[in-house]
């Protein structure tokens, strides 16, 4: 097959574009939910009035993705792998927390042998993350430093947003009950 190499390259590029599209869609939905829950700015959780899409979150995700274009491909891939492992850990922790904090919540899907699968997933993804971090220390320090910086920036933003919201709540003027009708002297 004389064009076999070109076919493989086309398949790889198509696969990469498809995966990036899924990441943009998923990350924008996560950002939108975080905006609605108050973990990001509320504007990130806005839905477009006409198209019904989280347009601010999509734009935010696009900016992050465009910023990653300037990274070496290997570093961007390594960061992505690390963040996927961390997100899998967080999802499984959330499963356990939701089961404990909201036991009566409607769950159309039951996890067989609960809590073994989420605990096993947390442990195994944690092991993979530690192995990946060890690999990054030896081979791609840039990806590791950028990942730590990204997590630190997120933590700082989260704490600052909570302090800002806490201050805004304290500074809200106390409302007094309105006077009943007829007491204002109007006739």
Question: What is the topology?
Answer:
Layout: H1 4-37, H2 55-68, H3 73-101, H4 116-139, H5 141-171
Helix pairs in contact: 1-2, 3-4, 3-5, 4-5
Give a written overview of the molecule.
This protein has helices at residues 4-37, 55-68, 73-101, 116-139, 141-171. With 187 residues, the chain is mostly helical. The chain folds into two domains: 7-70, no CATH class; 71-169. The longest helix has 34 residues, at 4-37. It starts with a helix and ends in a 16-residue tail after the last helix. The model has no long low-confidence stretch (mean pLDDT 84).
Question: How would you describe this structure in keywords?
Answer:
187 residues; mainly alpha; 2 domains; globular
- Give the terminus-to-terminus CA distance: 96 Å
Q: Percent range for helical residues?
A: over 70%
| Overall strand count | 0
Approximately what portion of the residues adopt beta-strand conformation?
under 5%
Largest sheet data: none
Q: What's the short story on this structure?
A:
This protein is mainly alpha-helical and 187 residues long. The protein is built from five helices and no strands. α3 (73-101) runs antiparallel to α4 (116-139) and α4 packs across α5 (141-171).
């Amino acid at each position: 097959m004389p064009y076999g190499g070109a076919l493989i390259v086309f398949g790889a590029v198509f696969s990469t574009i498809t995966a990036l599209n899924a990441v943009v869609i998923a990350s924008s939905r996560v950002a939108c939910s975080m905006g609605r829950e108050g973990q990001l700015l509320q504007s990130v959780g806005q839905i477009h009035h006409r198209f019904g899409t989280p347009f601010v979150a999509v734009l935010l995700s696009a900016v992050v993705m465009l910023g990653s274009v300037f990274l070496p491909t290997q570093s961007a891939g390594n960061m992505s792998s690390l963040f996927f492992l961390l997100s899998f850990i967080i999802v499984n922790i959330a499963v356990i927390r939701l089961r404990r904090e909201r036991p009566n919540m409607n769950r159309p899907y039951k996890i067989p042998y609960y809590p073994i699968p989420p605990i096993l997933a947390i442990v195994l993804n944690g092991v993979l993350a530690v192995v990946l971090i060890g690999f990054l220390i030896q081979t791609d320090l840039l990806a590791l430093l950028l990942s730590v910086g990204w997590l630190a920036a997120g933590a700082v933003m989260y704490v600052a947003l909570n302090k800002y919201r806490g201050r805004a709540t304290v500074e809200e003027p106390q409302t007094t009950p309105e006077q009943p009708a007829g007491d204002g002297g109007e006739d």
